[in-house]
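Appendix B. Chain record.
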Amino acid sequence: MNDSRANSKTDVALRYHEATKHSEAKIRNDTHSLDWGNQPQPFKIYRNAESIALPRDRDILLAPTPPALEAIAPALGNQGGRARIPDLATLARVLFLAAGVIQRKRRPRGDVYFRAYPNTGALYHVDLYVVTGDLADLPAGVYHFGPNDFALNRLREGDYRSLLGEASGDHARIAQAPLTLVSASTYWRNAWKYQARTYRHCFWDAGTLHANLLAIADAESLDPTVVLGFADEGVEALLGLEREREGALTLVPLGNCDTSLPPASAVTTLTLETQPLSRSEVDYPLIREIHAASSLESGAAASAWRGFASSHVKIAAANAQALPVEALPLKALTPLDDAALPQRSLTDVISKRGSTRVFDRTRAISFQALSTVLDRATRGVSADVPDPPGTMLDLYLIVHAVEGLAPGAYHYRRDQHSVELLQEGNFRAIAGRLDLGQALAADAAVNIYSLCSLDAVLERFGNRGYRAVQLEGGITAGRMYLASYAQGFGATGLTFFDDDVIEFFSPHAAGKAVMFLVALGYPDRVALGLER
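Structure tokens predicted for this chain:
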């Protein structure tokens, strides 16, 4: 592993992961309760920033896009480096379908503004910022995207893209891009409910957001890639983040231009005031500790980290378990071919999506539909680590109701594009218990768990690997959402008893760690009041 100061001390990530595991004993002894009178507002609102309205015309925001199942699994790699500079309408469409408000529901404790991407507790603590050069209809500057009023809040005037280039260790795509989106979390907006576990949710929720973002940006030929290697302090200073309360998560360069980045002005301290989130905030030191320990101190450190990670042994190899002497039964996936894919557009899927709250356990999904979800969601992510189409994840399944696949526990063999049967049986009750005793996992057609060999991830990437593998879990789950809704059924992300999941899938999963759980199935329309 590279020796980038705090990042190399991987006991911090291991300690954080252990401290934020769910267990039945912890749940019983947890005295935390939700203080509804202190619930944070779901938006970051600037009081004195100049606001630039984004185009709201539905013909612009919901312009035709490719089918969702095509958009979530594009060919990886640069699109020939061709010039592609988005205009404000294109940027508005990308922001709306990645993180905009798609539905508003009135609730007794206050309205809930549902965004384009799934989010833990519908608390929406991840914000997007735009760092851009001059576009045809937007001056160069640093902007915050405000979903509440669908506008850009100008934080700085001028072209600061070169600072992102320096922070990323001269990443090639950042140097080519006319603009870069930066994601960041305001921890308290999620920690109000989830406490220290919020740092996991930073990357789960950023991951589902990025599943949308990558799909729509690819559909717009903007050649997106996720950059995780950057100097945190410089990026956070540029955005004016309060480092005790907020943290930068990713950089996503968009578009291509053939001009070099101009030198940037010095970064001064921003004095823009934001509205308080709630009357008081609770500090969770574990969040600050893991963010600091997984930070990189310079662009040179980011470049070294990325170079080391790219040259080291693949995590997928470390994830692979040696098969027992008697090989486990394999069933090859049978995904729909391109000609038979449902043609529901990406725009339609995102704008009408919503997490399934009740599953119909009497309805099965087809093995072909499940195969299509697995095939489309696991084709790799364009990112600086690991080398596409590499992966850090191992997928395990508890199947309840899949036509053509016996109920039981399975492991997804990426190398053979197959699922292998670990144990046959009806595990609905066990799945429900693993999901903190909730009915969703018991009633779903199938539960898909993202696991990893955490020790191997940390050996390769240091503490920053903890960010990377959680993010990959979130992106994979976000693509599963989109692939499910595109085929006419639903999905929801769930939490879990960490060690109990590993025990259930062992000995095959022994020594691994759980990163994400998503359940798939048809919604129970009667229970939801949609049918009598």
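Further analysis of this model is presented in Appendix C.
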